[in-house]
Structures are given as structure tokens and as C-alpha cells.
């Protein structure tokens, strides 16, 4: 696939996944504050992405 950009969302209750994406080169672009309600709690959602040139350099 000839993609220019890949984007993902990861929940704040999963810091290990966020760390794995950062290690793979993904950068945090923003936060959807309290965007998920689960088990009587609100959770933030991190938006992350990587560009083709960043992937190729890594």
C-alpha cells in the first residue's frame, strides 16, 4: 500500500500501547478529553500518527 499517513487512537488506560506506538515512531497529535465513558469513568483518547517519510527514516 502506498500510504502517506497512518493515524490511530489509543486510550489513556493503556499506557503500554501508547509507549509501543511511540517507540514505533508515532507522534501524539492531540487528545480527545474525556471522550470515552467506560465503567463509570471518563477516559481521554490520544490521537497519534506517523507520516511515510518518518516511517522510512526510522
Can you tell me about this structure?
- The chain has 58 residues and is of the alpha+beta class.
- The protein has a 3-stranded antiparallel sheet.
- The chain contains 2 helices and 3 strands; from the N terminus they run E-H-E-E-H.
- 26% of the residues lie in helices and 52% in strands.
- Strand 2 and strand 3 form a beta hairpin.
- It has one domain.
- The longest helix has 9 residues.
- This is N-acetyltransferase domain-containing protein.
- One of its GO terms (molecular function) is acyltransferase activity, transferring groups other than amino-acyl groups.
- InterPro entries: Acyl_CoA_acyltransferase, GNAT_dom.
- It comes from Clostridium tertium.
Q: What does the secondary structure layout of this molecule look like, with pairings?
A:
Layout lengths: L4 E7 L3 H9 L3 E12 L2 E11 H6 L1
Antiparallel strand pairs: 1-3, 2-3
Our Rg estimate from Cα atoms comes to: 13 Å
What distance lies between the first and last C-alpha atoms, to the nearest angstrom? 18 Å
Low-confidence stretches: none
Secondary structure: helix percent = 25-40%
Biggest beta sheet attributes: 3 strands, antiparallel
How many β strands by DSSP?
3
Q: How many structurally independent domains?
A: 1
Helix count, per DSSP?
A: 2
Structural class: alpha+beta
Domain N-acetyltransferase: 1-53
GO molecular function, one term: acyltransferase activity, transferring groups other than amino-acyl groups
Protein name: N-acetyltransferase domain-containing protein
Organism: Clostridium tertium
Amino acid at each position: 500500500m502506498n500510504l502517506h499517513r497512518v493515524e490511530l487512537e489509543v486510550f489513556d488506560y493503556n499506557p503500554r500501547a501508547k509507549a509501543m506506538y511511540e517507540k514505533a515512531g508515532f507522534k501524539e497529535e492531540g487528545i480527545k478529553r474525556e471522550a470515552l465513558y467506560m465503567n463509570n469513568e471518563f477516559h481521554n483518547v490520544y490521537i497519534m500518527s506517523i507520516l511515510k517519510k518518518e516511517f522510512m527514516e526510522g
